[in-house]
């Protein structure tokens, strides 16, 4: 992102959806993603706003996993917007350096 903001041409080559999720996790601290999912599930902000501790349902690991995936999806969308805003091209595929200045597929 910083290179693009400095006027450099930036292209990100990524393996695909599985590593794309990892990229979103690296961009946003995974513990913050998990924290946000937990806060959303137990409606902490809403309870704090109304100044009362209202009863809540038991949160299962499936609830948490579902909400975490939603948070990561939102982060992915935000990251794509940042790529677009900074003219960063995202290519799904695999590449390797053949020398310090050139890439080859695979």
| Rg from alpha-carbon coordinates | 19 Å
Major sheet: order of its strands? 1-2
Number of strands: 4
Percent of sequence in beta strands: 15-25%
Silhouette: elongated
In whole angstroms, the N-to-C terminal distance is: 24 Å
Order of helices and strands: HEHHHHEEE
In the predicted model, the low-confidence regions spanning at least 5 consecutive residues are none
Mean pLDDT: 77
Largest sheet: 2 strands, parallel
**Helix amount:** 55-70%
Protein structure class: alpha+beta
| Number of helical regions | 5
Structure description:
- By secondary structure, the protein is an alpha+beta fold.
- The chain is 56% helix and 16% strand.
- The strands form two sheets. The protein has a two-stranded parallel ribbon with strand order 1-2.
- Helix 3 packs across helix 5.
- The longest helix has 25 residues, at 61-85.
- The protein is elongated and about 55 Å long.
- It starts with a helix and ends with a strand.
- The relative contact order is 0.20.
Structure summarized in a few sentences:
The protein is of the alpha+beta class and 106 residues long. The protein is built from 5 helices and 4 strands, in the order αβααααβββ. Strands 1-2 form a two-stranded parallel sheet.
What are the key terms here?
two-stranded antiparallel ribbon; 106 residues; elongated; 16% strand; alpha+beta
Question: What's the arrangement of secondary structure elements?
Answer:
Layout: H1 2-5, E1 11-14, H2 17-27, H3 30-41, H4 44-50, H5 61-85, E2 89-92, E3 95-99, E4 102-105
Parallel strand pairs: 1-2
Antiparallel strand pairs: 3-4
Helix pairs in contact: 2-5, 3-5
């Amino acid at each position: 992102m910083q290179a693009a903001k400095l006027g450099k041409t930036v292209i990100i080559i990524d393996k695909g959806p599985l590593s794309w999720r990892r990229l979103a996790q690296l961009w946003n601290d995974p513990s913050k993603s998990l924290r946000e999912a937990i806060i959303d599930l137990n409606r902490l902000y809403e309870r704090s706003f109304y100044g009362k501790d209202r009863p809540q349902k038991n949160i299962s690991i499936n609830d948490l996993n579902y909400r975490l995936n939603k948070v990561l999806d939102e982060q992915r969308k935000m990251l794509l917007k940042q790529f677009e805003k900074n003219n960063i091209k995202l290519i799904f595929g695999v590449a390797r350096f053949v020398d310090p200045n050139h890439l080859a597929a695979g």
